[in-house]
Design goal:
It is a single chain. The protein is of the alpha+beta class. It has two domains: about 15-120, no CATH class; about 120-280, Tetratricopeptide repeat domain (Serine Threonine Protein Phosphatase 5, Tetratricopeptide repeat), CATH 1.25.40.10. Helix content is about 50%, strand content about 15%. The chain has eleven helices and seven strands. The protein has helices at about 1-20, 100-105, 125-140, 145-155, 165-175, 175-190, 195-205, 210-225, 230-245, 250-260, 265-280; strands at about 25, 35, 45-55, 60-70, 75-80, 85-90, 95-100. Strands 1, 2, 3, 4, 5, 6 and 7 form a seven-stranded antiparallel β-sheet that branches. A hairpin with a 7-residue loop joins strand 2 and strand 3. Helix 4 runs antiparallel to helix 5, helix 5 packs parallel to helix 7 (about 195-205) and helix 7 (about 195-205) runs antiparallel to helix 8. The termini are far apart. Residues about 1-20 have low confidence and may be disordered.
Length: about 280
């Protein structure tokens, strides 16, 4: 009976391994330091490779080849011998599958490539590299990971280009608004007409119960800053504060003043916020 049970367990494990599926449910940044596969092409081949962060170039894919699943558990592979085929990954919503250990075994690749040690975050050599890693995490929406690198860089060199704004971005993202304003205060004196810095100031003011100051910042931006990239976003964020305060009158006045309802990016959202506010009355 015991031998029969052991045989049954063994056969079940073999069956499960043979039927192991690839789950394409992970974005690039969450696949850091992992072997991944892309969805199959028209011939059934999955491109695969390894994703890591290059301190100078950002999130990077090392393309290693393709494989095709045959008969449930066999892999037909086409490997790339030269590992220099690298692709810089820009933020997007694409999903990949992290390769399970069974696939790594069949592909005869180690869980951690030997070359990865040269990109270890334990070997960071400069403040710029700290900033670059933090910037990469911010760009992918991973501010909780970005903050430690940007904070280190800021403490070492607060004059490093862009460090203040990106550090403040992480602080805002983590709802540490007072700290963000403190970081941005001196920076804005040096760069009073920087659109990105003022955007972060306005956002921090709004969420730090400084609505009046945020409106003054908005008016300052319109009057003094030629770059208009964030104007609609800034206006919408202020409208959002009126929404959170259930202030329909000032919400409508603000939307009319800024013509947000006609904005291609925010018009639909503004109409929905108004509808919700009117329901509360």
């Amino acid at each position: 009976m015991k031998k029969t049970t052991l045989l049954f367990i063994f056969l079940c494990s073999v069956f499960i391994q043979a039927q192991e599926k690839l789950n394409f449910d992970t974005n690039y940044i969450r696949s850091e330091d992992k072997w991944i596969a892309f969805p199959a092409d028209s011939l059934g081949y999955h491109p695969y490779g390894f994703i890591y962060i290059d301190p100078h170039a950002g999130l990077t894919l090392v393309f290693s080849g393709t494989f095709k699943i045959e008969n449930g558990d066999k892999l037909s592979t086409q490997k790339v011998e030269n590992s220099s085929m690298k692709y810089r990954l820009e933020p997007n919503n694409s999903l990949v599958a992290i390769l399970p250990q069974s696939y790594l075994n069949k592909l005869e690749i180690p869980e951690t490539p030997d070359w990865l040690k040269y990109y270890s975050k334990n070997n960071i050599n400069s403040t710029q590299e700290l900033y670059n890693i933090g910037y990469t995490y911010n760009a992918w929406g991973e501010c909780s990971k970005a903050i430690s690198y940007l904070e280190q860089a800021y403490k070492i060199d607060a004059n490093l280009p862009h460090i203040n704004a990106d550090y403040a971005f992480s602080l805002n993202c983590l709802k540490r608004y007072s700290e963000a304003l403190e970081v941005l205060k001196n920076t804005n004196k040096l760069k009073p007409n920087d659109a990105y810095i003022n955007k972060e100031i306005l956002y921090a003011q709004l969420h730090n119960n400084q609505l009046k100051d945020a409106i003054e910042t908005y008016d300052y931006i319109l009057k003094n800053i030629t770059e208009t990239t964030y104007n609609s976003e800034n206006a919408f964020n202020i409208a959002g504060e009126y929404y959170r305060k259930n202030d329909l009158k000032n919400f409508n006045n603000w939307v009319q003043k800024t013509q947000l309802e006609d904005d291609i990016n925010f018009g639909t959202d503004v109409k929905e916020l108004r509808r919700l506010l009117e329901q509360k009355k």
